[in-house]
Amino acid sequence: MSKRMRFVVVAWIMIMLILPLDVLAKAWTFTDVTTESRAYDEIKYVVDQNIMNGRSQTKFDPDAYVTRAEAAAVIGRSLKLPNTKNDTGFKDVPASHHFSGYISEMVERNILAGYPDGTFRPNEQLTRGQMAMIIGRAYFDQFSGSVSASASDLMRNGIAQGIADGTFGERLKIKRSDFAVFVARTVEPSFRLSVVQPPTPQPEQKPEVDPYVRTMYVTSEHSDLNVRTGRGVQYPSIMKLPFQTKVEAAYPVAGWIKIRVNGVEGYVSEAYLSTTYPQPTPKPSPGMSKPELTGANKYLIYPEGQSAPLFASANSSSKVLTRIPTGSQVRVLSSGASFTQVQYGNTKGYVRSNLLFNVFPTTPAKPTTLANEVIIIDPGHGGTDPGAIGHGYNEATATLAIAKYAKNYFDNSPFQLKMTRETNTSMSLAQRVDFAHRHNGSLFISIHINSFSNSSANGMETYYYSPRNTTRDKEARAIASYMQNRAQKAWRLNDRKVKTAPFLVIRFTGMPSTLLEAGFITNKSDNAKIRSAAWQEKMGRAVYLSTLDYYYHEHGMVSETLPLYEAIGEKPSKRIH
């Protein structure tokens, strides 16, 4: 090697050593994505943000299809979730799998789910319809279960478009380049398309409008609102905005909105912005309370935020007329299964029907004695709704039997027990929630039986709802954990673990709540226990014991619970949460 050549090599090595590692990591090395490529800007964005990687150091592979495991990793990185390797519970995703942490996080948040045979199928390729639902669940809290509704929401927000034949193409497999485009548009508003789409849209079109499409106001009344450099409280605050400050706002993503104030851009929590000018909260008079409503008046309750949209028409794609603060009273004009027409102030519009209740939710005080604790047991279904049916037996019969066996134990304890139904009667989900609040429930336990079209599906699982990681949410996770533990000891079925889900009865109750799915009625082996009086009694006992475990471990009520364990020949479980 010549001296000149040696000098060049040494100089190049020195430059590489001096460059920061993040600069080296972001050097563009993909030969199959150039500045002339479709979606170059969006692909470069998600790569630079460490949201997506190439299939190799030199190939992004834009035309390859996205797998379920890749989708979990991409969504996980964009939401800043950990990829801590752990046991996923799926037989085809061991803890050693490079995306096991992301997959666990996605399942925990109900964004992705496994299959009844106990697999996750990480290498299965996604369709455009599945992609729409995943993005809706991950970023917009849309758990409708409808591909068409999810696709409509993405198109309405300028994230996705249809294909040349005028459809969304929900059954077509999605390419990595298109997935990069949709994710980029979701997390960075400047990539989004104009809401008014041209007749023949092209995926690479850029918006010609200002992404800050709405005027909104700060609703944080008692403390100034932090504006942060990124989505999440882990990012530093760059300024604080007082109550009623006017801002220019883009679309929300995963509970955060990018805003602009006096030329400065940043991110704030969606919960503290409203499209209507907020008024100060009136100071309550002594003894002021929230009465139970009757007739046409209802409370609008929105657990995930401070306000819910009032739509111009009975669909979520229509214009948002205003936002109604949670806890507000509205007048019902006409009811529907999905949307209800209401009047709020002088404005008439539509809200989601499942947000309306007669009783205002209350969060119970910290327990001081078991005699003051009101346990609500909710046997699922009943009356005209038999629930799941399998092998000639129905869910409503099983849940009521288990609840009555549990009642026998609670009746011999200091607890106050209330059952949403004690006979084979019909009761809506909203009525069950209202019942729990009307009786000032301390703990809510809903009992259900699972089913599936494939009779091989089996086992039990227990759910809780945790949107904000509050004290109530942590306690809900605790009771769910003790419930799953005791139920498993009672019946020894396949352990499908503790999970989260936005089931209405545990989503809208103000007290810690859990929902037990005690086996699959459609599985012959599970069904044998579900319909047996002896096994029903064991499950009722498990419901009671899990409640004792909750108060023993989570509230330190040792002296009151120990005699109750001893009275039935039991001991406290280990602390498992």
TrEMBL record:
Domain SLH, chain residue ranges per copy: 26-85, 86-149
GO molecular function, a single term: N-acetylmuramoyl-L-alanine amidase activity
CDD domains for this protein: MurNAc-LAA
Highest taxon listed in the record's lineage: Bacteria
EC number: 3.5.1.28
Residue stretches making up the SH3b domain: 214-277
Keywords: Cell wall biogenesis/degradation, Hydrolase
InterPro entries listed in its UniProt record: MurNAc-LAA_cat (IPR002508), N-acetylmuramoyl_amidase_3 (IPR050695), SH3-like_bac-type (IPR003646), SLH_dom (IPR001119)
Protein name: N-acetylmuramoyl-L-alanine amidase
Organism: Savagea faecisuis
